[in-house]
Design a protein that fits this description.
The chain has one domain (5-204). It is built from 10 helices and no strands. It has helices spanning 5-31, 40-67, 77-99, 104-113, 115-132, 136-142, 144-150, 153-167, 173-188, 190-204. Helix 2 runs antiparallel to helix 3 and helix 2 packs antiparallel against helix 8. The chain binds protoporphyrin IX containing FE. Residues 44-45, 48-49, 51-52, 55, 88, 91-92, 95, 117, 120-121, 123-124, 160, 163-164, 167 line the site of protoporphyrin IX containing FE (HEM). Protoporphyrin IX containing FE (HEM) binds at residues 44-45, 48-49, 51-52, 55, 88, 91-92, 95, 117, 120-121, 123-124, 160, 163-164, 167.
Length: 205
C-alpha cells in the first residue's frame, strides 16, 4: 500500500492519541495506588521503558519506510522522536524530583559517581540536543553539521539499553533483549555506520 500525505496525518494523530493514553495510564496507575505506597520505582520503570520503546520505534521508521518503499513515512519520525525525549525527560525528572528532592548538586554527584547514571545522562543529553535542533529551520541553518549531530542518535540507541542493563539488580533478560534490539537496529544501518565511523578514521591515518 502506498501512503499519501493524508495517511501521514492520520498516523500522526494516532501517535498523539497512543502517547497521551500511555501518559493518562501512568497518572491513573499512580492515583489508584497500583504502584504501591512508594510509587517512585513504578514511575521510573514505566517512564524508562516508555522512553526506550519510543526510541526504538523512532529508529524503526527509516528501515520500514525503505523496505515498504513508503518514503513519506519518515515524516512521522520527528514526532515519535519528540515523544522519546518527552518520556526520557519525565524519567530523569522522576529521579531528580522524587528520589533526590530537587537537589541539583546531588544529581551531579550521582551522575558522576554511578556509571549506569552517567550512561543514562549522556543518552538524555543526546536526545535533548536532537530535540532542540529538530526543526526544519535549524536543520537548514546547521547544514552538514546537522547530520553529524543527529548521527549521535546511534550512540543514544546503544547506551540507553546498557544503562537499563546496568541499573538492573537481578532481572537481566529484559535489558539484554533491548541491547539485542539496539544492536539489530544498528546492524540494519551497517553501511551508514561504516561511512560515519570507518571513513573518518581512515582519513586521519
Ligand atoms: C539523566 C538521565 C537519566 C537518569 C538520571 C536516569 C535514572 C534512572 C534510575 C535512577 C533508574 C532506576 C535504577 C534502579 O532501579 O535502581 C533508571 C532505570 C532505567 N532507565 Fe534511566 N535515567 C536516565 C536516562 C534514561 C534514558 C535516556 C532512558 C531511555 C531512553 C532510560 C531508560 C531506563 C530504563 C529502561 C530503566 C529500567 C527501569 C526499571 O526496570 O526499573 N534512562 N534510570
Amino acid at each position: 500500500m502506498r501512503l499519501t500525505p493524508n495517511h501521514i496525518t492520520v498516523i500522526k494523530v494516532l501517535v498523539h492519541l497512543v502517547s497521551l493514553s500511555f501518559a493518562a495510564n501512568l497518572v491513573n496507575l499512580v492515583l489508584s495506588g497500583r504502584f504501591g505506597a512508594d510509587p517512585v520505582d513504578g514511575i521510573t520503570h514505566y517512564t524508562g521503558l516508555a522512553a526506550l520503546n519510543t526510541l526504538a520505534i523512532t529508529m524503526l521508521i527509516s528501515p520500514i519506510a525503505r523496505f515498504s518503499k513508503n518514503g513519506l513515512l519518515v515524516r512521522c519520525r520527528r514526532l515519535i522522536g519528540l515523544y522519546a525525549f518527552f518520556w526520557a525527560t519525565l524519567h530523569m525528572l522522576t529521579f531528580f524530583a522524587l528520589d533526590l528532592t530537587f537537589n541539583f548538586s546531588l544529581l551531579w554527584t550521582e551522575i558522576l559517581s554511578r556509571p549506569y547514571l552517567t550512561f543514562g545522562a549522556i543518552s538524555w543529553l543526546i536526545l535533548f540536543a536532537l530535540t532542540i535542533t529538530s526543526t526544519a529551520k535549524i536543520q537548514r541553518r546547521m547544514g552538514a553539521k546537522w547530520q553529524q549531530l543527529h548521527n549521535l542518535v546511534y550512540v543514544a540507541l546503544i547506551i540507553a539499553p546498557v544503562h537499563f542493563y546496568w541499573s538492573s539488580k537481578s532481572e537481566l533478560i529484559e535489558p539484554s533483549i533491548y541491547i539485542l534490539l539496539a544492536l539489530t537496529l544498528l546492524a540494519i544501518r551497517w553501511k551508514t555506520l561504516k561511512r560515519i565511523v570507518v571513513r573518518p578514521v581512515f582519513k586521519r591515518t
